[in-house]
Design goal:
The protein is mainly alpha-helical. It has 7 helices and no strands. It starts with a helix and ends in a 6-residue tail after the last helix.
Length: 136
């Protein structure tokens, strides 16, 4: 059997650590997406795309468009990483769909033109052909 004072010290120790644990949980739950706007370090296309998807699900079309354009600017920039370039097809096709929904067909065609040549077999993606953004 434990002496009576050891149990109280353990409980007091846990209660003393509670504010630190709560602060850590709060900080971790409010950290922005890695590479996203407002995050630490340079912006990354993957983080901006994830933020655009989250905003699209909330119905925030203005910021969705803004973050997709920011991701595309990073992909087209000279400092783009291989991870950024791997997102190019997804970012271009998503941005083209948003622009097409807004009625900006000419800009959607211009954004989507490089994506029509990005598939491995050289044929345009079927989803972009069905939208009329790539020639068959």
């Amino acid at each position: 059997m434990l002496p009576p004072h050891r149990g109280r010290r353990t409980i007091y120790g846990l209660l003393g650590a509670l504010p630190v644990m709560l602060a850590a949980v709060y900080w971790m739950s409010h950290t922005p997406l890695p590479g996203a706007e407002g995050g630490r370090g340079p912006l990354a296309a993957r983080g901006l795309y994830a933020q655009a998807v989250a905003e699209s699900e909330r119905g925030d079309r203005v910021n969705t468009l803004r973050h997709l354009r920011m991701a595309l600017a990073i992909i087209e920039g000279p400092a783009a990483t291989p991870s950024d370039r791997a997102m190019e097809f997804r970012v271009r096709s998503s941005l083209a769909r948003v622009l097409l929904a807004r009625g900006e067909r000419d800009e959607a065609l211009a954004v989507c033109a490089p994506a029509c040549r990005l598939t491995s077999d050289g044929a345009p993606a079927l989803e972009l052909v069905n939208l009329g953004l790539c020639p068959p």
